[in-house]
């Protein structure tokens, strides 16, 4: 392999030949291959010349040449009469390409200084300065820096002015030299593209161009906004502004550096939207009132570009929804039906859900505003009740949906109604109160076999579980499990009777309910003060007593150690009337059935005889006889009860009420509220103890906030209730007040 040896060189003669090729390169004139290779070799020999390398002299000569060349180009730009931009762009493109070729022509010069730099860095611990080395740049970088210093920094005023004028003409719809404009703007970045880090690459661009671009953009769109607002109504103004913003974004992407797009768009938004935001929001209220949904969409497209714009819109949206939903609160206060209340809520919910989805891009700000407004509506008390009636009304509505006899018998319709019910349920804050109402209604449907189907009950409970979790619905699911187990047990009992060739005179089935799993005890249906064994048991009719005894024997043999207790107030039976002109099938309570069966053997009986025969306590007997007389199944003459052989009813199959429905419902609601109130007190006390046990010492306000946070998934406790519970715990010596700070509590282990 041959190595070129350093030798003496004639610098002036060599530079003359090298500069000739350099001039050809910078003017994009053709150069013969042999001459190109020869001058590359000449550069090498100058860099390696003996006894002293001439690289620095060559570097300085090239630098001088490039400065003169750029100064010549600058004069052409300043003297341009047909527009500065085309001339500048043509000269810059030629120069930029030439600088790339120069890098190849002077590659040995680049390598010479690169090697020196590496050597100096290696010897840095000898304290040799490398500043002298660093002043030598790669030829291409040198060329671009000279263009920056001698061209851009000295002609940027007319150059940038011309660029901004062309951008303004483009905004007004006058065609521009789009490619030329883009190349001129990007030349401010390219001349520093070798710089590092990124900030220094863009320094010249930002100082000379971006600042003026932003000022020009702001001035232009400030005037444009004023003109558009004066010439158009709000609707047309928004249409035109959306068009302007879309056009501007395309323009910015076409012309300027990507780092300037965001600040330029912000400047446009400030002038076209932010400066008149208050006026637009005033119009927004009218749009909502008049339901101009297309204008709502346009305004959202504009306002979302502002930092706090959507939040302000969402606050107005919230107030408007609540105003629309006041009808539901007034209905509740007047004592509406569950269906009326739910329909009123659903009208508001569906209307504004559609607006959020279709016109507001399901924006989270508006979704939250809708949820807050619906929560406020659903949990309003209507100034008539201590507790909101929403839980009671929603549960009664669900009870209507899931009961047999629902007019909307189609499965798909019932499922749609259940989805609507779950959508409204999520806004109920008193989840514990709702659960108590729902469990009672579910229990009644299951026990009295009035549910449409177990499958639909499971659908409803699954929806509640999705909102509140498994723990919330586990008591409800246990009831469904009990019913399924009871069905299997009844079938097993029937098979047992078949195997023994035994047959009852009646159709008998039984529900085995776990104690504690259902929203009533074994005393269900009996006033608490009378709830002893004597009120629950009575002289069961012989046909029914045989069934009960057989089932007890079967059950005790199958499950040893379990105790069965029959809850007769919750039991019912079906009887067929054959003594009337027309046959009737009636479902009634066991107590009512027992009274009627007494008339199989005789047509009349006194109250004393009935009491002796059945052994019922006085209040229950009074209630039972009253319902039979009111229904005209028996007649009362003095103290004598007679079977009504002329009984007539429009229905041939129906259920006999056990008490006045209204009185029963009001009493049930009152009892539920009292029970929930007590449960809440216990829950809050437990939350206080749990918090204080972990913290040992806590301030009054912080304790209240901790308890609210622990309780919010079940209910929102009042501060007054929390204070009462704190006092109770102090009396019970779980807590004490700090001796020096009365608003600080301490936990007593």
Structure write-up:
It is a single chain. The protein has 749 residues and is mainly α. It folds into five domains: 11-194, 5 helical Cullin repeat like; 208-272; 390-519, Up-down Bundle (5 helical Cullin repeat like), CATH 1.20.1310.10; 568-659, Cullin, Chain C, Domain 2 (Ribosomal Protein S5, domain 2), CATH 3.30.230; 663-747, Winged helix-like DNA-binding domain superfamily/Winged helix DNA-binding domain (Arc Repressor Mutant, subunit A, Orthogonal Bundle), CATH 1.10.10. The protein has helices at residues 11-26, 33-47, 55-78, 84-105, 107-122, 131-134, 139-171, 178-190, 198-201, 203-231, 234-255, 261-272, 277-290, 293-303, 309-324, 326-334, 338-359, 364-378, 390-402, 411-425, 431-447, 454-468, 470-499, 533-536, 542-558, 590-597, 607-614, 618-630, 661-695, 700-711, 719-731, and strands at residues 572-577, 584-589, 604-606, 634-637, 640-643, 653-655, 697-699, 735-737, 744-747. A three-stranded mixed sheet has the order 1-2-6. The radius of gyration is 46 Å and the shape is elongated. The N and C termini lie far apart (94 Å).
- How many individual β-strands? 9
Q: Any low-confidence stretches, pLDDT <50, length ≥5?
A: 117-133, 522-535
CATH homology superfamily name of the largest domain: Cullin Repeats
| Main beta sheet strand tally, sense and closure | 3 strands, mixed
């Amino acid at each position: 392999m041959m190595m070129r040896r350093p030798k003496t060189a004639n610098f002036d003669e060599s530079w003359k030949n090298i500069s000739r090729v350099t001039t050809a390169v910078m003017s994009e004139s053709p150069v013969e291959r042999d001459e190109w290779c020869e001058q590359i070799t000449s550069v090498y020999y100058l860099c390696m010349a003996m006894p002293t390398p001439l690289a620095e002299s060559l570097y300085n000569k090239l630098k001088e040449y490039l400065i003169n060349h750029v100064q010549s180009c600058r004069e052409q730009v300043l003297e341009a009469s047909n527009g500065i931009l085309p001339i500048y762009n043509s000269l810059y493109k030629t120069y930029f390409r030439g600088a790339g070729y120069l890098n190849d022509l002077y590659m040995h010069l680049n390598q010479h200084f690169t090697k020196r730099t590496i050597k100096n860095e290696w010897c840095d611990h000898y304290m040799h300065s490398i500043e002298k080395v660093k002043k030598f740049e790669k030829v291409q970088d040198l060329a671009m820096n000279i263009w920056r210093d001698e061209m851009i920094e000295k002609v940027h005023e007319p150059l940038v002015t011309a660029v901004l004028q062309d951008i303004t003409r483009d905004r007004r719809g006058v065609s521009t030299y789009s490619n030329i404009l883009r190349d001129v703007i990007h030349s401010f970045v390219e001349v520093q593209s070798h710089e590092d880090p990124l900030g220094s690459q863009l320094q010249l661009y930002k100082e000379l161009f971006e600042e003026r671009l932003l000022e020009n953009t702001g001035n232009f769109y400030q005037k444009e906004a004023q003109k558009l607002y004066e010439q158009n109504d709000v609707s047309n103004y928004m249409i035109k502004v959306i068009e302007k913003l879309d056009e501007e974004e395309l323009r910015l992407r076409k012309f300027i550096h990507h780092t300037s797009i965001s600040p330029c768009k912000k400047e446009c938004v400030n002038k076209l939207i932010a400066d008149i935001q208050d006026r637009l929001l005033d119009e927004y209220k009218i749009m909502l009132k008049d339901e101009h949904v297309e204008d709502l969409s346009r305004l959202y497209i504009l306002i979302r570009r502002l930092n706090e714009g959507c939040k302000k819109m969402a606050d107005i949206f919230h107030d408007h929804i609540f105003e629309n939903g006041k009808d539901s609160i007034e209905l509740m206060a007047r004592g509406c039906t569950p269906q009326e209340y739910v329909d009123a809520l659903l009208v508001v919910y569906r209307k504004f859900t559609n607006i959020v989805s279709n016109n507001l891009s399901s924006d989270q700000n508006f979704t939250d505003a809708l949820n807050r407004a619906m929560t406020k509506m659903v949990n309003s008390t209507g100034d008539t009740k201590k507790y909101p009636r929403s839980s009671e009304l929603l549960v009664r509505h669900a009870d209507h949906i899931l009961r047999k006899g629902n007019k909307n018998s189609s499965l798909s319709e019932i499922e749609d109604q259940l989805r609507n019910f779950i959508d409204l349920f999520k806004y109920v804050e008193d989840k514990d109160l709702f659960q108590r109402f729902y469990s009672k209604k579910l229990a009644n449907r299951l026990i009295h076999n009035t549910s449409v189907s177990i499958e639909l009950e499971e659908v409803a409970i699954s929806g509640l579980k999705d909102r509140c979790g498994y723990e919330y619905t586990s008591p409800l699911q246990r009831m469904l499990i009990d019913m399924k187990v009871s069905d299997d047990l009844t079938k097993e009992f029937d098979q047992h009777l078949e195997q023994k060739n035994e047959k009852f005179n009646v159709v008998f089935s039984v529900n085995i309910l776990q104690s504690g799993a259902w929203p009533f005890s074994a005393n269900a249906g009996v006033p608490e003060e009378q709830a002893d064994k004597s009120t629950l048991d009575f002289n069961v009719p012989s046909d029914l007593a045989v069934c009960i005894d057989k089932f007890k024997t079967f059950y005790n043999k199958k499950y040893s150690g379990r105790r069965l207790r029959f809850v007769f107030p919750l039991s019912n039976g079906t009887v067929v009337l054959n003594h009337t002109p027309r046959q009737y099938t009636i479902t009634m309570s066991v107590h009512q059935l027992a009274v009627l069966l007494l008339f199989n053997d005789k047509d009349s009986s006194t109250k004393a005889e009935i009491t002796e025969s059945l052994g019922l306590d006085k209040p229950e007997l009074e209630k039972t006889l009253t319902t039979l007389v009111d229904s005209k199944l028996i007649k009362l003459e003095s103290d004598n009860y007679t079977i009504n052989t002329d009984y007539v009813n429009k229905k041939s199959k129906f259920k006999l009420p056990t008490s006045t429905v209204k009185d029963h419902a009001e009493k049930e609601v009152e009892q539920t509220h009292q029970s929930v109130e007590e449960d809440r007190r216990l829950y809050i006390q437990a939350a206080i103890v749990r918090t204080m046990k972990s913290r040992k010492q806590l301030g009054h306000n912080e304790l209240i906030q901790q308890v609210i946070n622990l309780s919010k998934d079940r209910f929102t406790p009042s501060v007054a209730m929390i204070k009462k519970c704190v006092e109770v715990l102090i009396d019970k010596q779980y807590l004490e007040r700090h001796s020096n700070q009365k608003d600080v509590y301490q936990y007593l282990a």
